[in-house]
Design goal:
40% of the residues lie in helices and 23% in strands. It has a five-stranded antiparallel β-sheet with strand order 6-5-4-3-7. The protein starts with a helix and ends with a helix. A hairpin with a 5-residue loop joins β3 and β4.
């Protein structure tokens, strides 16, 4: 490949990255003068690549919006980032529709890569090992995800067809505040305008979504992820647990994160160090309690169980088993 041809392809790659590129910027990156840049642009236009000239003080060149360029041009770093992202997303359960979508996408990328780069990337992927098994989660429908995302961006209400964990089906309106990826699943959090309460829904349980007329205002200072985690910590379950734990907020959150428990932190006394250990109130809800005694033991902090009595019995039983094991020789 001649050097001018190589520079034309490099120009195409620079324009693919998006935005307006000035003649001076392009000339600097290509190592040529402005007149040569314009000649290279003319060559791309002759090849039916829709390069647009933007006039004005901040003018330059850009590609026409929505144009898809064959062939796909990726640098070594970009190709590795895309393929690793597909692998990580598939293993983490953060894919839409079937797993075959990520596999076919990876295959298409490999097919258009130079052989040298394809071999290097295959070497990286073949040498990867994971400490956790692949996520075994239901995948959301791509059309549902795109419809909800559009509603979030434009603050438009949507109607969703939802199946809850008990198999009950319903259709309800939703003011969607944001989409959150959490522990291998996709969620949408927002407000149900019919009951005036915040709700969080798993996207894989939404069978269909359609945009409704009108718009809504999102709350000021909205943090969808924190809103969802707070909702998880206060959701209705079989047991309501109240604890007092002596420690710092960071020590407690290491074992009982915001998506599991709510933490009441009283304001420290004037002049006191907020990192000082003190008694903090912890509340959580759970469908079963078996997992909680080992978590409390792993905290290695003094704690008091206020409720329920069943948890006291489980903690005592765990302590007895540990003591018995320790005495064995």
């Amino acid at each position: 490949m001649s050097r001018p041809t190589g520079r034309v392809l490099t120009l195409l790659e620079l324009l693919q990255s998006g935005g307006i590129r000035t003649v001076a910027e392009l000339a600097d990156q290509l190592g040529v003068d402005g007149r040569t840049v314009r000649r290279y642009v003319d060559q791309l236009i002759d090849l039916d690549v829709p390069v647009e000239a933007v006039r004005g003080r901040y003018g330059g060149y850009r590609l026409a919006s929505g144009y898809r360029l064959p062939p796909l041009m990726l640098s070594d770093d970009e190709a590795l980032a895309v393929l690793l992202g597909l692998v990580a997303g598939r293993r983490g359960g953060l894919m839409t529709t079937a797993d075959t979508a990520s596999e076919t996408a990876a295959a298409k990328i490999r097919r258009v890569l130079p052989e040298r780069l394809a071999r290097r990337l295959d070497t990286v992927l073949e040498s990867l090992a994971f400490t956790a098994p692949p996520g075994q989660f239901a995948n959301p429908d791509a059309e549902v995800l795109l419809t909800v995302a559009d509603a979030v961006r434009h603050r438009r209400p949507v109607s969703i067809r939802y199946t809850d964990r008990d198999g009950r089906r319903s259709e309800r309106p939703l003011h969607a505040y944001g989409i959150v990826a959490h522990s291998g699943r996709w969620y949408v959090t927002g407000m149900d305008p019919e009951i005036g309460e915040d709700r969080t829904f798993r996207l894989d349980r939404i069978a269909g979504a359609r945009t409704l007329p009108g718009s809504f205002e999102a709350p000021a200072g909205l943090d969808p992820a924190q809103r969802m985690l707070s909702g998880f910590a206060t959701a209705e379950y079989r047991y309501e647990v109240t604890l007092r734990i002596h420690g710092t907020a960071d020590q407690i959150r290491a074992r009982l994160p915001a998506g599991v428990a709510s933490l009441e932190e009283p304001a420290p006394a004037a002049g006191a160090d907020p990192a000082t250990e003190r008694w903090l109130r912890v509340e959580l809800r759970a469908e079963n309690l078996d997992w909680l005694p080992p978590v409390l033991a792993s905290l290695d902090r003094p704690f008091v169980i206020e409720r329920p009595d069943e948890l006291r019995n489980l903690v005592t039983a765990l302590a007895d088993r540990l003591a018995s094991s320790a005495r064995q020789t």
